[in-house]
Amino acid sequence: MGRFLILGKEERQKYLFQMLCDRGQTVTYCDSWLDGGYDAILLPVAKTAEYFKQIADRLQAGEYVFGCNFPAELAEYKRKQGIFLIDYMKEEGAAYENAVATAEGAVVEAVLAGKEVLFGQRALVMGYGRCGQILARRLQGLGVNVAVYEKDQEKQGMALACGCASHQGDWHSYAYVFNTIPERVLDAGRLSAMRRDVVIIDLASRPGGLDYGYCQQNNLNAKLCGGLPARYAPKSAAELLMKIIEANLKEVMSYVAG
After folding, report:
1. Residue 73 CB neighbour total at 10 angstroms
2. pLDDT digit string (tens) for 217-229?
3. What is the DSSP string of 146-163?
4. How does 106-128 read in b/e, with b if 16+ C-beta sit within 10 Å?
5. Burial letters for 156-188: b for 16+ Cβ neighbours within 10 Å, e otherwise?
6. Which listed residue, of 6, 68, 177, 219, carries a Cα 20 to 30 Å from 200's Cα?
7. Which residues contact 248 (CB under 8 A, 6 or more apart)?
């Protein structure tokens, strides 16, 4: 039987607790370290770095720690001590499935933030990676006229092949702007060229891809939307994490089933 410690009170962690209990595992669920000796420690996706720094000195060789975006220097040091660190989003297929939940959550955020239906509107998707691609398709399915801002020529060609327009520099033409690029791409100059009633949904990690000082001063409707899978689809997000945990801990997880 496996011994698990789940830290953090976000919704995904609550579902993981129930899933592990249903599988007959021994699970401790709390918000701070409890001594006990564990097979695996499950950190919250959005706050992995914060929790990892708090518990790093208590980890023992042979333990598995699951999370996302571990602080690089400390992570390498702990690996040398025999700690196994599993980054959820670096596992095969995980980033794509997470992007699906993020894209669907972004559409919900746009609907809630806007004053008009999405159908027939012009929207700009900034970045055509996994999330940008899925988001563009979801918007097209809702009847949105989608343009893509993407510097990579191959990705831009993919966007055109999928029926998206190419952004031509007319920032004022969009009712909705979705940013997936993890860097400051919407500065004061670009923001000042947009419609005053534009809705901007920023999916980049903190601090985001916008000049939020300018948005606040000029009353632009811009929102930094991190952690959408946990907010809108926590059960599905937890099921994805559970698959990764089971794949990495086959022997531990199969003990009860066997």
Report:
1. 8
2. 999 999 999 889 9
3. EEEE-S-HHHHHHHHHTT
4. bbebbeeebeeebeebebbbbbb
5. bebbeeeebeebeeebebbbbbbbbbeeebbee
6. 68
7. 64, 66, 84, 86
Contact status, residue 24 vs residue 1, Cβ threshold 8 Å: yes
Q: 149 pairs with which residues across the strands?
A: 126
Pick from 4-13, 39-48, 90-99: least confident: 90-99
Residue 238, classified by CB atoms within 10 Å of its CB into exposed (0-12), middle (13-18) or buried (19+), is buried
What is the phi/psi pair of residue 182, to 5°? -80, 50
Q: At what angle do helices 130-141 and 153-161 cross, to 10 degrees?
A: 20
Which residues on adjacent β-strands are paired with residue 5? 28, 41
What residue type is assigned to position 184 of the chain? Answer: R
Q: Do the Cβ atoms of 125 and 178 come closer than 8 Å?
A: yes
